[in-house]
Amino acid sequence: MTKIYGIDIGPRGTCQHYHSELDVVALECAQCQRYYACYECHNRLADHDFAPWPKGDGKPVLCGVCQKKLSFSEYQQGQCIYCQTPFNPGCAKHCHIYFN
């Protein structure tokens, strides 16, 4: 099981900052390569700011429901391609923080 870092992490990967039923995605920081529930948790707990992943590289997205890793393009489908859990569409406004 991949550990999800953050503050007040729930069983599906929610955190203190984002905790709706749709907030089930953890994102990997390109610098420390740890999955965090959100950039705010990362920036409070790590000794560096969240470093985004290039959109075409790796699998920087983790579904907190099924624990499967996804690429940026798979994540953009709006739901987990493995368990079909929907993702929060509001996360799109933070895309520039997580991906470049």
From TrEMBL:
GO molecular function terms listed in the Swiss-Prot or TrEMBL record: zinc ion binding
Coiled coil: none
InterPro entries per record: UCP017292, Znf_CHY, Znf_CHY_sf
Ranges for domain CHY-type: 8-85
Signal peptide, first to last residue: none
Lineage top rank: taxon: Bacteria
Entries under Pfam families matching the protein: zf-CHY (PF05495)
Keywords attached to this entry: Metal-binding, Zinc, Zinc-finger
Protein name: Uncharacterized protein, contains Zn-finger domain of CHY type
Annotated source species: Fructobacillus durionis
